Amino acid sequence: MTKLLTIFAMGCSILALSACNTVKGAGRDVESVGDCADGVKGNC
To answer: Is the pTM of this model over 0.90?
Structure first.
C-alpha cells in the first residue's frame, strides 16, 4: 500500500512540474486563473 501511494505521489508531482517549467510560468498560470475568475469578458 505504501509503495502504491509513493508511486501515485511521484506521478502527481511529475505532472504538476511538467505543467509549468519555471516559477515564472507558475506565476503566469496563477495570474491567468485569477484573470479568468474576475468575470471580465475576454480574459479566459
So the answer is: no
